[in-house]
Amino acid sequence: MNQPAVTTYPVTEGVGQALEISLRGVEELLPKDEWTRKLARSAATGVPLRVKLGLDPTAPDIHIGHTVVLNKMRQLQDLGHQVIFLIGDFTTLIGDPSGRNSTRPPLTAEQIKINAETYYRQAAMVLDPERTEVRYNSEWCDKLGARGMIELSAKYTVARMMERDDFHKRFHGGQSISLHEFLYPMLQGYDSVALNADLELGGTDQKFNLLMGRHLQQEYGQEPQCVLTMPLLVGLDGVDKMSKSKNNYIGITEEANTMFAKVLSISDTLMWDWYTLLSFKSLAEIAVLKAEIAGGRNPKDAKVMLAKEITARFHSAAAADAAEQDFINRSKGGVPDEIPEVTLSGAPLGIGALLKQANLAPSTSEASRLIDGGGVRVDGAVISDRGLKLEAGTFVVQVGKRKFARVTLA
């Protein structure tokens, strides 16, 4: 039987530029030639491509490491494509086994609802909410029923499923794998069928699930989606991926001054990876900036620009400017405009107890260590005497570069 002719669309300069933006900072884009053809078709016909990102709301808050893939969505959104922010309220009931060495405990429907609302509110700080299609996979997964689940499960084999790295390791390590975990990648793949996705994005740990979407779309007679994976952002320590458990993260709801200062704390080398993955500057602009630094310009200038861009994204341009000034004041030994006001009693009070009660140190022993290290100031003067007792009055107390309190002692 003759195959229908495939229309070939020209790869124009604009298509080439869109491909370059698509490839920026990515780990893999599979298959690249198919994505190029999709971009060419979209440019010629004016029909936007459907770009899908699915997130399971397993936790209420996200950090800027989570926004790497959201930034890619925004880049594609700005190219004119239709981005779909898919909230996996149904699949969260199963729990994604990706990268796990044990079964993930499912969340309750109420936990999922609360987390989903917070997730999208925070994601909307990166995406343009007016141009974002928000969907929940319970829309179609709830309708599958027992018959639909059986029919879906018949479209993949156990042998292929066991090729997945985490299942393979758990099976050969004697660790349990529940049957419902096999359903997770099937349902994530079915999401792509339901949404008729042209491209699905995810982290490197999602590759198996993303490829499942391609397989199932072909099974259901659809044009298969392309797959784009993004690398995991290295955290503030310059070593491990950004993680709350590693305490090397920047939460996107952190206050502006803290966010700005944390970005400035990263290494000059790590800064360029962050520019690629987090900045909305073009690659050409970044290349010029990098050349200027190589030519002798102070790397701190580039880091300040990045810190202001990130801070403005999650707060405002005015907040970013204020955070920069706050950082300058602190670096000169100045006092920020707004610091906590604390009222204590018990004068005369030992400096160690004062630091603890003012929440400037977790314990009196830690307060002593900070004093020994020259990290405590009262009204701008460095304190070196652990036995110092303060009389009644009001003092500006500083610990390190960032902790301040105006303490009134009675």
From TrEMBL:
Localization per Swiss-Prot or TrEMBL: Cytoplasm
Motif ('HIGH' region): 57-66
Chief location: cytoplasm
All copies of domain RNA-binding S4, residue ranges: 349-410
One Pfam family per UniProt: tRNA-synt_1b
EC number in record: 6.1.1.1
Record InterPro entries: aa-tRNA-synth_I_CS, aa-tRNA-synth_Ic, Rossmann-like_a/b/a_fold, S4_RNA-bd, S4_RNA-bd_sf, Tyr-tRNA-ligase, Tyr-tRNA-ligase_bac-type, Tyr-tRNA-ligase_bac_2
Enzyme class: ligase
Keyword vocabulary terms for this entry: Aminoacyl-tRNA synthetase, ATP-binding, Cytoplasm, Ligase, Nucleotide-binding, Protein biosynthesis, RNA-binding
MF terms (GO), sorted A to Z: tyrosine-tRNA ligase activity
Gene3D superfamilies per the UniProt record, alphabetical: HUPs (3.40.50.620), RNA-binding S4 domain (3.10.290.10), Tyrosyl-Transfer RNA Synthetase (1.10.240.10)
SMART domains in the record: S4
Alphabetical list of CDD domains matching this protein: S4, TyrRS_core
Residue ranges annotated as motif 'KMSKS' region: 241-245
Catalysis: reaction(s): tRNA(Tyr) + L-tyrosine + ATP = L-tyrosyl-tRNA(Tyr) + AMP + diphosphate + H(+)
Residues noted as binding ATP in the record, renumbered to the chain: K244
Function: Catalyzes the attachment of tyrosine to tRNA(Tyr) in a two-step reaction: tyrosine is first activated by ATP to form Tyr-AMP and then transferred to the acceptor end of tRNA(Tyr).
Subunit structure: Homodimer.
Family assignment from sequence similarity: Belongs to the class-I aminoacyl-tRNA synthetase family. TyrS type 2 subfamily.
Name under which the protein is recorded: Tyrosine--tRNA ligase
Organism encoding this protein: Acidovorax bellezanensis
Encoding gene (name): tyrS
